[in-house]
Request: fold
Amino acid sequence: WRAGQWSLPSALVHSPEDTSSTFNQSLYSSLRALDRGDSEFAMYETTRSRAELLHKAVNVGAESANVMNMTIMRMRMLDDVSDAARLWRHFSATNATSYEEAKLSLMNRWNARILENVPFKLVEPSLALQRVILQMAKLDEYLAYNLTRTSILARKDGHITEGVQAIRNMRMIASHSNRSSSLPGLITDKASPWRVEEAKLLWAEGK
Reply:
């Protein structure tokens, strides 16, 4: 799902009746459903996966704090997909008001679940998932925010390589500015937050 490739053979993705799939398979199924405009199945899949996670947590029990933290983060990721699925039809709507309201609603819901002062490696899968959804919905401004935040968190936690990769992706998006006048100022402005973060990364690398 990280690569955003939704054309894998159906045999690699479980059917709705299969309850033995892994968490990542469930994410793939729900995101592929969104890509095909089937928000109802995306909602079904997140609900099924959430129940599976709860069942394991209750009946198997947490072996460590790390396992419990990962379970909580995965539940939050499923909530992120559910939020997007509920609003998905508005992202392709011609009604500008509905589109803007849906964007704001999605980000408000996601921002309400932001975790502060947590290890980057724990929160990184959630950031990656949100990034995939934002790319699918073509929400460039929020995608820029996601990549910048990813880089900041990675750098502060000592994961410079991941921070550099996020900013590299941001530069690729910004490089399209000459071919798209619709890109927001958050991406194209010389003093954009991502450019400030790029400078901090260079400093951290000693360049």
